[in-house]
Design a protein that fits this description.
Blueprint (H helix, E strand, L loop, with lengths): L7 H9 L3 E2 L12 H7 L6 H4 L6 E7 L5 E5 L9 H20 L16 H7 L2 H5 L8 E7 L2 E2 L3 E9 L2 H13 L4 E6 H9 L12 E9 L2 H17 L2 E7 L2 H12 L1 H6 L5 E3 L13 H15 L2 E7 L4 E9 L5 H18 L11 H4 L9 H14 L33 H13 L6 H35 L4
Antiparallel strand pairs: 1-5, 2-3, 2-4, 6-8, 6-9, 7-8, 7-11, 10-12, 11-12
Helix pairs in contact: 4-5, 4-15, 7-9, 12-13, 16-17
Length: about 475
């Protein structure tokens, strides 16, 4: 069992020393914590083959509303000595199971989901681990996590395909999924345009509307290469403009560098543009993916906002980074209009607002637009059973009333300015991608450095005064 503050990258590194791995790999894997992944049911590129975090959690050590601590273990009896667990089993279990038999709380055809509580998964398994994973700190606090691992891949190969239309790319992604690809990522034209505007030379034709990057695994380098060539043939069959195959590690790294360039590319843009991820995380049924991407493009265009669209094509789960000019007088209205339009779009396509990042305070006020009243009633029942006093993360998953999706936005220039030291620390985190470091620790370090600098300046002044006095008092010959 690991502590929730353990970094995903450290867990995976330790597993690989024994020929194993933790296969859930969000793009923040180098700095995200296991506790955060469990709280949001995080996923990542390889969820196409391995699923999200929930699948890989064997047990949770949890602190419940009355302070009771207990282990909740997959496949074993729930700890009924805990009042919250007993309440749920007495007051919630039967109603949730019966409700899920009538109408599952899920978005049909959607492959990734971290919105609401996993009542549909619980009704299948009767396993509290399934319900607690993804609960975003609203039902209990996790102080220990036991993870399942799997064998490390013997070898991997990758394929890049460039496509003239979104429809061609979506068809190719579906083929890659059926062919057993471990990952299949999409970079939309919006992403490619921003990359080119930053001076990057891209290994794709200028007329490409979308690029797919697929990865396959095999027991040996030969097996992986054979699988990659099969994907390449599939891409050619889907009318790809260009296809490149990488069967060695160096070439694979070069191919995937384009996907991993998202944050550096955005960091180079006009400093007045803020990447605000308020519609970042929707997932739709795969056959509706082209409609979703095109719909987001249209909303961005109507609002006069640049944006970057990229993500997990194999799961039809996309990230959107609108680039907001906060110096524009109507920037907040544009943000609110975009969020409203894209929420309507997602609901109309039968999608979820969050595939892997959770509802948080941003999406919880919007849940009535994508979940039925019956589903939301079950979510509220879960919350009442585990947390009747509402002490755990109120306003997340279940609204408490009066919330707005967009309230204070940290980039708002009208907000009171942060203290200089805090602003410097946050700028350092963003500039150096130092997300794995404690902000409070960095703030203390910055304070210590400032105090040392001020002491040195004072000492220097005193030293200068001493020299001056010594010169004045020196005997003259």
């Amino acid at each position: 069992m690991v502590e929730p503050g353990a970094l995903r990258v450290d867990i995976d590194r330790a597993a690989r020393a024994h020929g194993l791995r933790f296969p859930v790999d969000p793009s923040s894997g180098s700095f995200c914590t296991i506790g955060g992944m469990v709280a949001a049911n995080a996923a990542g590129a390889h969820s196409l083959r391995y699923g999200a975090t929930r699948t890989w959690v064997r047990a949770l050590r949890a602190v419940f509303d009355d302070g009771a601590v207990a282990d909740v273990r997959r496949g074993e009896a729930a700890p009924r000595q805990v009042s919250a667990v007993d309440r749920f089993l007495r007051q919630g279990h039967a109603a949730i199971v019966a409700g899920e038999e009538m109408l599952r709380a899920r978005h049909w055809g959607v492959h990734k989901e971290s919105s609401g509580y996993a009542t549909a998964a619980y009704a299948r398994s009767y396993d509290l681990v399934d319900l607690l994973v993804g609960s975003e700190g609203t039902l209990a606090l996790f102080v220990g996590v036991e993870l399942a691992l799997t064998d490390a891949a013997g070898a991997t190969s990758s394929v890049l395909g460039a496509f003239a239309t979104l429809e061609d790319a979506v068809a190719a992604a579906a083929g890659a999924r059926e062919a057993g690809a471990a990952a299949c990522e999409l970079l939309d034209r919006t992403f490619l345009d921003v990359a080119r505007s930053g001076g990057d030379t891209l290994p794709v034709p200028a007329e490409a509307e979308a690029v797919l990057l697929a990865e396959v695994e095999g027991d040996s380098r030969l097996d992986a290469a054979v699988a990659a060539r099969a994907i390449a043939a599939l891409f050619h069959g889907a009318a790809a403009l260009a296809v490149e195959v990488a069967v060695d590690e160096r070439t694979e790294v070069e191919l995937w560098a384009l996907r991993h360039a998202a944050s550096p590319i955005l960091a180079r843009l006009d400093p007045s543009l803020r990447s605000m991820q308020f519609i970042e995380d929707a997932a739709v049924p795969p056959q509706r993916l082209a409609e979703y991407v095109r719909g987001v493009r249209n909303s961005l265009s109507r609002s006069g906002v640049r944006g970057v669209i990229f993500g997990h094509a194999g799961d039809a789960h996309m990230h959107v980074n609108p680039l907001i000019d906060v110096t524009a007088p109507d920037w907040r209205q544009r943000v609110e209009r975009l969020l409203d339009e894209v929420t309507t779009l997602v609901a109309g396509l039968g999608g979820t607002l969050t595939g892997e990042h959770g509802d948080g305070r941003l999406r919880t006020p919007l849940l009535d637009r994508v979940w039925s009243e019956a589903a939301r009633d079950r979510f509220a029942l879960v919350k009442r059973c585990f947390d009747p006093m509402g002490i755990f993360n109120p306003g997340v998953k279940v609204p408490v009333g009066g919330e707005r999706a967009l309230n204070d936005i940290k980039y708002d220039p009208a907000l009171p300015p942060l203290p200089d030291a805090a602003r410097e620390v946050l700028a350092t985190v963003e500039r150096e991608r130092a997300y794995a470091r404690s902000r409070l620790e960095m703030l203390r370090e910055a304070g210590s450095t400032r105090e040392e600098r001020e002491r040195d300046e004072v000492d220097g002044m005193r030293h200068g005064e001493t020299l001056s006095v010594a010169r004045r008092s020196r005997p003259r010959g």
